[in-house]
Amino acid sequence: MEFVLAPSNFKGTLSSIQVIEMLSKVINSFDKKASIISFPLADGGDGTLDSYKFLYKNNYQEIKIEASGPFYHKDIYSSYLIVNKKTAVIESCKFCGLALAGDKSNPSLTTTYGVGEAIIDALNKGIRDFKIGIGGSSTNDLGSGMACSLGVRFLNRNLESFLPTGGTLNEVTHIDISNLDKRIMESTFTILSDVENPLLGTNGATYVYALQKGASKKDLPVLEANMNHLNEVIKKDLHLDFSKEKGAGAAGGLGLAAKLYLKGTIKSGAVEILEESNFQNSISSDSLVITGEGHIDRQTLSGKTISRIARICKIKKVPLLAIGGIIDEEIKPSLIDLGVTDFLTTSTKKYPTFKELKENASKDLIYSFKSYLFKHYQSLKD
Asked: Domains along the chain?
């Protein structure tokens, strides 16, 4: 039979490529003649560069640069891709991601400045076509850091220019875009988002995502008020309001900033990568598709890879197994409606620390998948 392996990264524990390697090894232990097709996928967040490396094989160049990390003045070494010698692929979380911020993550302090530095580096190399993945950030700065690095000036009440972060967006009184890099207007930006949230409100950037970025519950009203304040300044000075559009709240408002300053088009990262990989035409009624991510929860329904794959499998009547380190039971009915036919949880016990979870992730995945095939392999073949 044919196995189509199409996982995303298991965030913080296993890359999509590692997951594919482990699943393939288990499958081959049951049937050395089994056909295996691999699609290491991403949705605009962690693993986006890996997906494009796989898609473009030898037709990419990895560009290593020194740029600002999640905390300004603390530079990191990171990278982006140039594919087909013409398109820059930038994974924002390589510059401002949660993993980089670590246990010091604080959306009041983190910045997207490094994302803009990567854009400038590519512009300097003559690139005018961009794909920017914006999932997995540690930020809530409404993309102000990125904008600053591209030449936008944010002024306080004393008309002094400064770099706003999530905790200081309320200090902005004026926005000056007269020095925005002119090459931006010569360029095309496709923004790969992993979620569809608007900027503000209970379903917006702050209330849905800031807690996982290190905010406390008492921080949320302040961060929301700060973001609302800057959005009002944007409306006053730039006469634009993208706050209610899908994806505006992605990456702490980086989605809105990409539309505002880059004139970018927000697309589902999962859909874009699935289309570029020709996934839909690679599966048939003889396939078993296997996808997965670290934690399958309500956010999975908001444009992430599993939900997109499920829709395709349902249309093509192909069975789909969704593997998760953790799977929230209440989300299963919605995913079944979308097209998931079975589930497999790899973390059968709760680990006291994330370090222990990470150390056991490979073993747990292999053991649980081997147990699943032992129980179901004959029926799958039939």
From this structure: 2-41+282-381 (3.40.50.10350), 48-270 (3.90.1510.10)
